[in-house]
Amino acid sequence: MRVELEGPPDADIMFVGEAPGETEDKLGKPFSGRAGRTLNNLLAQAGIARYQCIVTNVAKERPPANRISYFFEDKKCTIPKPKMQAWVNELKEDIELYKPNIIVALGATALWALTGEKKISIFRGYIIPCSLVPGVKVIPIYHPQAINYDWKLYFQSVLDFRKALRHSKTPELPEVKQIYRPNVNLPEFLAYMEECITNPEWDRLAIDVETVQPGSHIEELGLSHSPDFGISIFLLKGRIPTLPEKDELLLWQTFARLVKTKKIIMQNGAYDIGILWYNQHILIPDLYMDTLIAAHVCWPELPRDLGFLGSVCLNVPPWKSGSAKNELYNPADAANTFGISEVLDLELSTQKVRHTFNFEMGLIPVALMMQLQGIKVDRETQTELKEKWNTVMVEMKTQLDTIIGREINFNSPKQMQELLYGDLKLPAQYKRRKSVRDKRTLTTDAAALRKLAGMVPDNPIFNLILDYKKANTLLRFLDVKLSPESRVHTSYNITGASSDDEEDTKKTKRSFGRWSSSKSIILPFGSGNLQNIPPEARKMYLAEPGWTIIQADLIQAEAVVVSHLTGNTKMQQMFKDAFGLANKERKPYDIHVLKATELFGVPWEEVNKVQRKTGKVIRHARNYSAGPGVLANRLGITMSDAKKLIVADERVDPSLGLWHLSIQEELKRNRVLTNLLGRKHRFLDRWGDTLFRSAYSYIPQSTIGDLLNVSLRKVYDKLLEVPFEVKLLLQLHDALYPMVRNENVNETIKLLRDNMLHPLTYNNQEFTIDVDFKLHTSWAEGEELEINWKEVGDGIPKII
DNA sequence: GATTTTACGTA
DNA sequence: CGTACGTAAAATCT
To answer: Is the pLDDT at A775 greater than 70, yes or no?
Structure first.
């Protein structure tokens, strides 16, 4: 059936979808099916009344199998067949007839028909001119059906619909008042900087640098004192300097004077400040706002790249869409960073999250210092380890090639499938599914290999493959490039996942407040992520001669938090009683033994190792609502035994289940959870178990992440006060690794403990997570310290 | 050549 | 149907 346009002739807003679906086809009404229900929901969230709007589609008939490409000549849907062209002409006439103030292009097909553009992910949220009927404005938004498939797009689309409503009062496109001065000469740039310095009313300055790799050399420098102005100068063209040395020196001298007088705004300042310091030796003394951090605090679940933030915060045209060589790119970045900062500043107040913002801003210098400092690798040990594991790898490969009779790439899932399930005809092993509705996919991962090894005990290849793969993986962590000073460096990312990837708008940004670690662009040495180095590879990270690496751990950190969240008073008491004791003295307060006594009804003294391990695993698994499959896997027991264990534990500790339910209740209210240090997170996934599991882990995980960083900042502040040198080497989520000279170990441990004990409050009850220490000659080998802090009191412990 | 999938390391 | 994170190689798409 042909589906006609619907709505009042005097409507301000016109929604244009793609084509009718099954329900629409039957009822003859646009957006009357599942996508229509999602549209209605979005409109309600945005405060738009559908009956006051025009609703239609580009195509008036349903394509076979709902595939819009049926109406096009080409696969990319850019050359319409005559029927489609006629509908586009019809759409043009409708727009001219009804003259809406704004047209909402729902999805890529509508965007194409109205503007000729294709990429919805780039243009969504921006007000752009309609090319079909010039003079009309269009705002592209994801199609409701796309949102149904990918629920993460929901929240940002609500923001987009609100923007559409704001712009529906008048037909005019937003006025373009921005002035950009790209690629100016030195006198003009110097004059601008001098004007900034002398004008006290311009108190803030946005800075953006473009760099070339390798070396992160500054290619272009952009500045802005207002959302409506941006200026830039090139320092490099290709790799050739544009300015004589003397002139460039003058530029940087003036710049260094300028930044001292202004509140600085940057997007991802940790990088820009880092290279300004590393390459130009210019210190940015007052970073007033990092828009990446502000966005992370205000909207942790949304993308954070400038293009996205611009679409949400500003009324400027999309400036990131053209070719990368667009001259205006850099000055526009600077000006729009300024504009975005003003909106985020208000948002921080509205959402009452400024404390989290200030906290994260305070971490920038710490993370940057750790990145630039790096951590030393002993080249000799590295070579030894590389040789050792290379030998293992080659040996396994030789044996396997002989047994199998041909060469196989064991890193190739495809070849592995052919071997295991084709040649050997072994029972298929499937990957764990996110939902029972998902289709099963074959796997050849380590767990599958171990299972097959158990089924065919007389065939040695499974264990050989496992050993081969282990050596192979390890080599990835060992065979890394070192800096000339034999160091590796990592970029610690305060806002978690990096988001300068513009194509990546579909991924939800999670970031529970924990730092992530990735490859440093400034100093690209090492394996990148330093938070996932396996123990064997840690052996090559040696303490410098005469120095000791100290490991300061938050003890049982997440478990302590969970005991308070669930109101498990027995566990709380045990943590309290064990507080400050030496490691050896903690035995009577072992929560895993406690769990075993409860679970198996055996007296404390008679709990054996297997029972303790069972207690440990089940507690951890149940905290985060793991299923019997995981438990069976972890403990090497059958599914039915695992199920029984879970049932038994539910009887022993019903508080966990109740806590999970209370989290669901809290999510129901507004989908926002707040951790014990006040950090908020909105959960945008589709309502269901995946969402719940993620939410259960949020408060314990993010509280500990924040807690450790509170400590880290406090320790960092002390570094300048103490009369000896402390190097902060690593941050591993619940542990800090400083390195000091041997003679300063005692004082450092005292300092660490003083600054890492930080009381938390839940339900008006105060508690403190304990800290313990290990001393290392390398990152791998550590010796547990036995300190009874009750005996030490306020003094300094005498360890060495 | 760019993007997606698979596998795997840590807390 | 633990979660969180980043990297690399293979597979797949264009």
So the answer is: yes
> Measured in angstroms, what separates residue A497's CA from nucleotide B7's C1'?
20
A350 has a pLDDT exceeding 60: yes
| pLDDT tens-digit readout, A176-195 | 899 999 999 999 999 999 99
| Nucleotides of strand C lying closer than 7 angstroms to a protein CB | 1-12
State how far the alpha carbon of A535 is from the alpha carbons of A468, A488, A539, in Å. Answer: 18, 17, 7
Q: What's the CA A72/C1' B2 distance, rounded, in angstroms?
A: 25
Long-range pairs, A231-240, Cβ under 8 A, ≥24: A231/A180, A231/A181, A231/A182, A231/A184, A231/A188, A231/A189, A231/A192, A231/A331, A231/A334, A232/A181, A232/A182, A232/A183, A232/A184, A232/A330, A232/A331, A232/A334, A233/A183, A233/A184, A233/A185, A233/A186, A233/A189, A234/A183, A236/A212, A239/A212
CA of A482 to C1' of B6 (A): 29
The answer to whether the C-beta of A321 is closer than 7 A to strand C is no
Closest-CA residue to A105 (of A80, A86, A79, A123):
A123
| Pair type for strands A137-141 and A128-129 | antiparallel
The proportion of chain A whose per-residue pLDDT surpasses 90, expressed as a percent, equals 82
Mean pLDDT of A650-673: 94
Q: Which of A72-81, A377-386, A617-626, A635-644 has the lowest average pLDDT?
A: A72-81
Helices (H) and strands (E) in chain A, counts: 30, 26
Which protein residue has its CA closest to C1' of C1? A434
Single-letter amino acid, residue A794: D
In this complex, the nucleotide whose C1' atom is nearest to the CA atom of residue A557 is B11
* Cβ A520 to strand C below 7 Å: no
Count of Cβ atoms closer than 10 Å to residue A53 Cβ: 21
- What are A34-55's pLDDT values in tens digits? 999 999 999 999 999 999 999 9
In the DSSP assignment, the letter for residue A477 is H
A573 touches strand B (CB under 7 A): no
E strand or H helix that includes residue A551: strand A547-554
Query: CA–C1' distance A70–C3 (Å)?
Result: 42
Per-residue model confidence (pLDDT) at position A305: 87
- CA pseudo-torsion sign A183, A187, A189, A192: negative
Q: Which residues pair with A56 in a beta bridge?
A: A16
pLDDT of A502: 33
List, in sequence order, the alpha helices (H) in A532-627.
Answer: 535-538, 557-565, 569-578, 591-600, 609-623
- Quick one: pLDDT at residue A118? 84
Res A293: pLDDT:
95
Q: Is residue A640's beta carbon less than 7 angstroms from any atom in nucleic acid strand C?
A: no
Residue-level pLDDT at A330: 93
Q: Confidence class of residue A319 from pLDDT cuts 50, 70 and 90?
A: confident
Calculate the angstrom distance between C1' of C10 and CA of A411: 8
Residue A531 CB closer than 7 angstroms to strand B?
yes
Mean pLDDT of A227-233: 97
- Find which nucleotide's C1' atom is closest to A734's CA: B11
Lowest mean per-residue pLDDT among A114-118, A135-139, A407-411, A561-565:
A114-118
A514 touches strand C (CB under 7 A): yes
Q: Which amino acid is at A218?
A: I
Distance A6 CA to C5 C1' (A): 48
A285 pLDDT above the threshold of 70: yes
* Per-residue flag: A524 CB under 7 A of strand C: no
A534 preceded by a cis bond (ω within 30 of 0): no
Nearest nucleotide to A695 by CA–C1' distance?
C3
Closest CA to A415 of A431, A401, A402: A401
